[in-house]
Amino acid sequence: MFEYTFMQNAFIVAILISLVCPLIGMFLVLRRYSMIGDALSHASLAGVAVGLLLDVNPILSAFCLTSVFGIAIEMLRNAFRRYAELILVVILSLSVGIAITIISAGMVHTNVESFLFGSILTVSQEDVWSVAVLSVVSISTILLLYPQLVMLTFDEDGARIAGVRSRLINYIFSILVAATISVSIRVVGILVISSLIALPVATALQLQKGFRRTMELAVFFSFFDILLGLVISYWVDAAPGGVTAIASVVMLMVVIAYKEAVLTIRNKGGRGHDAA
């Protein structure tokens, strides 16, 4: 299977995605911003459409336009504090409207299905390099801003009092989310990117470990889900995005079942000890 160049390219991209998605997802989930990732993942379709229209790399065009939308969400968040969900509706409507207009008007002559559902056949060497650059920049930025991001995640007001430049870091974080979504487009697909950002983190949180340990577990679950999705999609000739999303949900269910089984065994053991 891995003797084919397209599978090698897809595997490299999958490794990078499995690192970046849970790192960003950890902060999004804990800040209860998961729906922002969902809105931006759909907004990336406009970036893909513009890239195809201008004949530039769709990953880079998706990153640029999704970054603009991400910054717009952060700016509007201050204007709509009481109705934050309206911001997502505005951005989603605008971006999807742009994408549908460009695609339906026949301005794009490339099939966008691979971007919607993901494809292991269309990952080119150029895509690998684009994903690698965006991934390295994203991971480096997370490591550089890690203390500030943690403070903002658990106590944004306290972080401001401590001197953290919260607005600037939130803007940078929005761009990181855009980069994460962009690197995932080719393999996972636009429609299920948000699941890859949130579900491995949700799975890791079930094990109730510390922050760093949970992040490490999220990376592990993400890598397992993506690799399983790639392998199964290759053998059944299906889009990897859908298979990966199913694998992520199944893994979450397995971990929840494991957690419940352990609690049941402990409770029975505790009652048996008390009776003795």
UniProtKB/TrEMBL annotation:
UniProt topology in membrane: Multi-pass membrane protein
CDD domains membership: TM_ABC_iron-siderophores_like
GO cellular component, one term: ATP-binding cassette (ABC) transporter complex
Residue spans crossing the bilayer: 6-29, 59-76, 83-108, 128-152, 164-181, 187-205, 217-236, 242-258
Pfam families in the record: ABC-3
One GO BP: transmembrane transport
Intracellular or extracellular location(s): Cell membrane; Membrane
Signal sequence interval, chain numbering: none
Keywords from the UniProt entry: Membrane, Transmembrane, Transmembrane helix, Transport
Family from the record: Belongs to the ABC-3 integral membrane protein family.
Name of the protein in its database record: Metal ABC transporter permease
Species this chain originates from: Megasphaera cerevisiae DSM 20462
